[in-house]
Amino acid sequence: MSDSLPLRLVLASASPARRKSLQAAGIEPDVLVSGVDESLVVTDRAEELCLELARLKAQAVLTRLSPAAGQRTLVIGCDSVLAFDGEILGKPTDPADATRRWLRMRGRSGVLHSGHCLIDVVAGRRAEAVASTTVHFADVSDDEIAAYVATGEPLAVAGAFTIDGLGGAFVERIEGDAGTVVGLSMPLLRRLLAELNLQITDLWTKVAPGGQTVEPLGTVPS
Asked: Which residues catalyse the reaction (predicted)?
């Protein structure tokens, strides 16, 4: 048997932005949607809420995995919420809700919290933490809000905005890691991997010309 094992990362999220963040950082994850009912967790603390949901998502996917022989599998669960004006804002319920939020948020700031839970399936070990970034919103006009809500983008994301899509034009600046706002902080993922005695480089992959195959660059001790 080889003295090293290929490392597999399973992303417990349907978020295209999280997957793209990993891919841009040289990591090609498998994706398995958790199906967790987010309404089951009730708390008035944004950090506690996003971390508990991240745990539930990772655990839900973990129970459905059958790790392959000769492979070390990790599961990463993430969840994001916006703390604004003493409230916790997840995804808007409908276009009217998204519009109301933007009328309140414009010209002001909030804190985007993203919980991360990383589980080493075989070892049964877990590392978790919350990353937080302050977001300063532009003083957008009523017409800009209406046009943005009409695209449907704000309905699919926590806080009703993105920085890596159409909503990026409506964010003046941030204080912290941009990846937190997207939903997955790469610097935090690196630190969580270190807690499991792994390196971010163990997850790097190389895509062949044409994107036909993915060749692992890193291996970890068996």
From this structure: 79 (proton acceptor)
pLDDT in tens, 168-183: 999 999 999 999 999 9
**Which tokens is 54 given?**
């991240």
Tens of pLDDT, residue by residue over 109-134, are 999 999 999 999 988 999 999 999 99
DSSP code of residue 20? H
The single-letter code of the amino acid at 142 is D
The question of whether 79 is a catalytic residue gets the answer yes
Bridge partners, residue 43, by sequence: none
Tokens linked to 31: 């994706």
* Beta strands 219-221 and 4-11, pairing class: antiparallel
Domains of the chain (ranges; CATH) run 4-221 (3.90.950.10)
H-helix segments, the chain: 16-24, 46-62, 95-105, 142-151, 178-182, 186-195
User: Which residue of the set 3, 30, 44, 79 is catalytic?
Assistant: 79
Contact 85, 44 (CB under 8 A): no
Ordered DSSP codes for 151-186: HSGGGGSGGG--SSSGGGGGEEEEES-HHHHHT--H
Q: Which amino acid is at 147?
A: A
Cα angle for residues 118, 123, 126 (degrees, 5° grid): 25
Rounded CA-CA distance 196/180 in Å is 21
